[in-house]
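Prompt: Have a read of the protein record below and flag anything odd:
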Amino acid sequence: MNLPPDTPPRFRPRPWTALETPQDVELWIDEHNRALQELVKPTETGVGICFTLAEGGNVYMQTTDDAVILDVEPDADWISPLIHAATGAEPPRGQVWVLPDDRLVQLILGLSTLVASTTLVVGHRFGSRARRPAY
């Protein structure tokens, strides 16, 4: 379905407040999951969140029952060493990282001070893996 060009975006960026503790991250995850349940239709795919980084670039994240999928845009590739340091995951050959789901809190804590805003997204292609979001 194509929307008219003057249609406002469905989701708007929200300013980010840095999270300092694992408990802060857990609260943010709960809030994020509630928002997804309320605002996203069960039939929608490519559901996740876009982290707009203060120093440039976007990182798209989707959580599934067993993984955290990150799509790191080329202009945000500078953050790859931090993702590796925070999660212990080896960098992928492309721009899509697939992390174990138990690394989500460490990932968010690692990214937290670098994020300017977040935006809910639907219809994003998270690599070639067709997975159902977990929320």
In short: The mean pLDDT is 88.
